[in-house]
What does this fold into?
Amino acid sequence: MKYHIENNTVQETLVIPLLGRLVCSERYPELFYDPEAERICSSIDYDFTEKRRKMETAFGLFGALEVAQRQYDLRSEIEDYLKDHPRAAVVNLGCGLDDTFKKVDNGFCRGYNLDLPDVIEVRNELLPPGEREENIACDLNDLTWMDRIDASNGAVLFAAGVFYYFRTKDIKRLTANMAERFPGAVLAFDSCNERGAKLMRKTWLKEAGITDVAAFFSLDDEKELEGWSSRFASVSSKSYMRGYRDIYRNVGLLHRMMIRFCDGPVKMKIIRICFKDRIREGENR
It folds into this structure.
């Protein structure tokens, strides 16, 4: 029996990135082949017709490319960390129906998928946790979720399309506490500048009821983050659409122009924050 999702609900917002992955898998299988996206979509009782129609327009398809490329970027960061920390915790902050852990699972790491209770309810039906994996219902601003994470072998935390919904002061508090609780860990997430946030306001942020975009998280320069915590070892960034795998030559002229727009005026990036390791820090004293 298919899982039913009502229109105009928080659960419906999970469909958009999922459909984006499916459309990219169909249009660009050499880049984004994703049978899991197809499986999940086929397991949902939901009329995708209108959203698919919009997503298959030129501008809609670019949004799908952003979603699929973002997952690839963050997956690359996780796999890089797991090379040196194969038994680390892989923590998906605001997981939705993202299946990144299944894609990076090396047979030793542990996965933690965090989101609000109504989202985890859907996830448990469509993406039940596998071996060494846990779906955790929580509010990220309630820092007690950190007690659930076994980071004894390291941790790589990531957020895909999530921090835009948080106020800047809350992101500052959250990242500073993660740096304190998870020494030696890495945090990776996507960001854009205020111009990008305003563009989002006209689309899906408006649908989410967010109007005061200036109060919400945006980023012009990752160096702004360096003073947020003395526990940050380094802050770096890469281009969202070209930094991990350059798809510029795989798309048409319009999408190439949009990639340049994202890299330039909107400053879409993947940010990586490395947290200080207390052991190494002690050795250097």
